[in-house]
Design goal:
By secondary structure, this protein is mainly beta. It is built from 1 helix and 10 strands, in the order E-E-E-E-E-E-H-E-E-E-E. Strand 3 and strand 4 form a beta hairpin. The protein is globular and about 30 Å long. Its main location: membrane.
């Protein structure tokens, strides 16, 4: 599935991921391939991307969670996510 993370200043990440974990108002929620369409607000926390690799252009924006797994994170203050047909856009600050 394709995920794009955008801030008002720049594109944080764009690429294929296996799944994404997001900080929602009522707790974290996981979006996986073929997830039902969703639009949700996000609160402060970490957006975690589960992916096999990250393009070098976007790697500088992300933090690798650990050496063993391919989990990358990006801290946000707030935002919104729209996901439909295995494509997601996360608008955040």
């Amino acid at each position: 599935m394709n995920i794009k993370i955008l801030t008002p200043e720049y594109v944080v990440f764009e690429g294929e991921v296996n799944s994404v974990l997001l900080p929602g108002k009522n707790g974290e929620f996981h979006i996986m391939k073929n997830h039902a369409g969703i639009v949700s607000s996000l609160v402060g926390g970490k957006v975690k991307l589960f992916t096999n690799s990250v393009n070098e252009a976007f790697a500088k924006n992300l933090t690798k969670e650990n050496d063993k797994d391919s989990v990358f994170s990006y801290s946000i203050k707030s935002g919104v996510v729209e996901f439909n047909h295995n494509k997601g856009i996360i608008l955040c600050e």
